[in-house]
């Protein structure tokens, strides 16, 4: 019995603006966020021991930023994060740049990422049966503590003079500039307390931001926000916002993440995003990594499958993780692609037959097989099959 397959192809990306949940589903049920940026920049020779940190390369070495983006895309990242974590207007101005120059550098962070994404996607689209998705670009917005560069993003203490309005004023113009630059997502990172989470939520509403956002907290004890406030308190203010698509944890030790995901699942219905560091500890005052037992890529990948099974939908790495880490996550966290499927069919008076369908090139989990018997060939047992995406 002969079987002919007519494959109906679809693009492997979703239109930007569709839901984050749809993007994740198209990415295989779990989307991979890239990894440590400063780690790679230093590997390529960048000197970033500076309050601007990796954002310094926006001024001195933008080609290295593009290089790192491409490395993570090649490794399988579904989301790449811009180099703007510590790129703030006050920070640029303190280095002698004008407000306008600072704004141009913020725009540049998004442009470098989108250009890298587009160049990479144009190249892989020419390859038959590739396994990549067209990545999204998330504009990184570091916490107020990241700007202070005093380690307060891991303590949650900003001082008695910092209130809700001051935090909104700090973030407002940077948010406006990054939104105007056109990223696909906004990533608020290492938020250490309820106050800043509330400031971000209110600011997104005040600015009528339509780009999906995620807010990630730091965590130093595996239980609460660095400020000591419970995540129940912190998430309460975020659950009310329709502009925040995902919440989670970043730059925390990986051994904390599984229990935190379970806690977040109880506290929110939003998408959960996690991208911990390698397990090493950053001394924000001394500006150095403290000796500690870190996770290698195999252990990180093994833990990440547990995070996925616990409910995380966006998984990546933060400080001291690399494209090698991302490659492992891309292979380990996605739904298994069926290499073959065997089943038996009853076709009228024909005897039961066994068909082997090679589906390795499809990323869709479910396909529907439509068998249309060709009447004039029925006596010889021929049939025509067509694969259709559900």
TrEMBL record:
<dbReference type="GO" id="GO:0008898">
    <property type="term" value="F:S-adenosylmethionine-homocysteine S-methyltransferase activity"/>
</dbReference>
<dbReference type="Pfam" id="PF02574">
    <property type="entry name" value="S-methyl_trans"/>
</dbReference>
<dbReference type="GO" id="GO:0033528">
    <property type="term" value="P:S-methylmethionine cycle"/>
</dbReference>
<dbReference type="GO" id="GO:0032259">
    <property type="term" value="P:methylation"/>
</dbReference>
<feature type="binding site">
    <location>
        <position position="251"/>
    </location>
    <ligand>
        <name>Zn(2+)</name>
    </ligand>
</feature>
<keyword id="KW-0479">Metal-binding</keyword>
<keyword id="KW-0489">Methyltransferase</keyword>
<keyword id="KW-0808">Transferase</keyword>
<dbReference type="InterPro" id="IPR051486">
    <property type="entry name" value="Hcy_S-methyltransferase"/>
</dbReference>
<feature type="domain" description="Hcy-binding">
    <location>
        <begin position="19"/>
        <end position="333"/>
    </location>
</feature>
<feature type="binding site">
    <location>
        <position position="319"/>
    </location>
    <ligand>
        <name>Zn(2+)</name>
    </ligand>
</feature>
<keyword id="KW-0862">Zinc</keyword>
<dbReference type="GO" id="GO:0046872">
    <property type="term" value="F:metal ion binding"/>
</dbReference>
<dbReference type="InterPro" id="IPR036589">
    <property type="entry name" value="HCY_dom_sf"/>
</dbReference>
<protein>
    <recommendedName>
        <fullName>Hcy-binding domain-containing protein</fullName>
    </recommendedName>
</protein>
<dbReference type="GO" id="GO:0009086">
    <property type="term" value="P:methionine biosynthetic process"/>
</dbReference>
<dbReference type="InterPro" id="IPR003726">
    <property type="entry name" value="HCY_dom"/>
</dbReference>
<feature type="binding site">
    <location>
        <position position="318"/>
    </location>
    <ligand>
        <name>Zn(2+)</name>
    </ligand>
</feature>
């Amino acid at each position: 019995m002969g079987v002919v397959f007519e494959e109906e192809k679809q693009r492997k990306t979703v239109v930007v603006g569709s839901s984050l949940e749809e993007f994740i589903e198209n990415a295989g049920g779990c989307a991979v966020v890239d990894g440590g940026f400063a780690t790679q920049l230093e590997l390529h020779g960048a000197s970033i021991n500076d309050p601007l940190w990796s954002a310094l390369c926006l001024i001195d070495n933008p080609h290295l930023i593009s290089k790192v983006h491409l490395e993570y895309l090649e490794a399988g990242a579904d989301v790449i994060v811009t180099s703007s974590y510590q790129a703030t207007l006050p920070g640029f101005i303190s280095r002698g740049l004008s407000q306008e120059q600072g704004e141009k550098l913020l725009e540049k962070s998004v442009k470098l990422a989108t250009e890298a994404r587009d160049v990479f996607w144009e190249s892989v689209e020419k390859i038959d049966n590739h396994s990549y998705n067209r990545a999204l670009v998330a504009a990184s917005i570091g916490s107020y503590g990241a700007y202070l560069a005093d380690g307060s993003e891991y303590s949650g203490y900003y001082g008695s003079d910092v209130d809700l309005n001051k935090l909104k004023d700090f973030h407002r113009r940077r948010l406006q500039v990054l939104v105007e630059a056109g990223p696909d997502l906004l990533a608020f990172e290492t938020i250490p307390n309820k106050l800043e989470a509330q400031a971000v939520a209110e600011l997104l509403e005040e600015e009528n931001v339509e780009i999906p956002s995620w807010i990630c907290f730091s965590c130093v004890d595996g239980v609460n926000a660095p400020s000591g406030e419970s995540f129940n308190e912190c998430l309460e203010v975020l659950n009310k916002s329709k502009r925040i698509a995902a919440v989670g944890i970043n730059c925390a030790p990986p051994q904390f993440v599984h229990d935190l995901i379970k806690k977040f699942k109880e506290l929110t219905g939003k998408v959960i995003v996690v991208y911990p560091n390698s397990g090493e500890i950053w001394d924000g005052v001394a500006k150095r990594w403290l000796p500690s037992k870190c996770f290698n890529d195999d252990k990180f990948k093994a833990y990440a499958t547990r995070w996925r099974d616990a409910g995380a939908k966006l998984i990546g790495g933060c400080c001291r993780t690399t494209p090698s880490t991302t490659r492992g996550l891309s292979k380990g966290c996605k739904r298994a692609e069926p290499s073959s499927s065997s089943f038996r069919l009853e076709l009228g008076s024909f005897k039961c037959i066994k068909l082997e369908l090679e589906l390795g090139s499809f990323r869709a989990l479910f396909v529907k097989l439509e068998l249309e018997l060709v009447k004039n060939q029925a006596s010889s047992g021929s049939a025509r099959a067509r694969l259709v995406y559900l």
